[in-house]
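> example.struct
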């Protein structure tokens, strides 16, 4: 088992990950950066970004639940241990927060 912190910042996609851990981390990142409804053949994939117009504490709580549900559904090799939020003053004023998802990966070898 390996614990990894995944953020919702965009990164390059690796077509052939070198390890299970790298593949799972990439899959979790893809889940938490994809808006629900934007994948044509699976409209339920991703997160519901409609909550962004709600007050920040409410939006964060709803996103945390959605993150746990979606990761559990689409990447069963990862277990969400914690969702936290990193933000600096500029991001807070823009209403933006960066999700930090701590996951535990089974069979990370």
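> example.seq
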């Amino acid at each position: 088992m390996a614990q990894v912190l995944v953020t919702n910042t965009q990164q390059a996609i690796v077509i052939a990950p070198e390890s299970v851990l790298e593949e799972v981390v990439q899959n979790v990142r893809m889940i938490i950066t994809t808006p629900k409804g934007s994948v044509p053949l699976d409209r339920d994939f991703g997160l519901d970004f409609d909550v962004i117009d709600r007050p920040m504490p409410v939006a964060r709580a709803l996103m945390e639940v959605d993150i746990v549900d979606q990761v559990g559904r689409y990447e069963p090799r990862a277990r969400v241990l914690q969702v936290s939020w990193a933000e600096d003053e500029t991001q807070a004023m823009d209403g933006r927060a960066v999700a930090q998802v701590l996951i535990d990966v089974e069979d990370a070898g």
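> remarks
Helices lie at 20-33, 56-74, 89-93.
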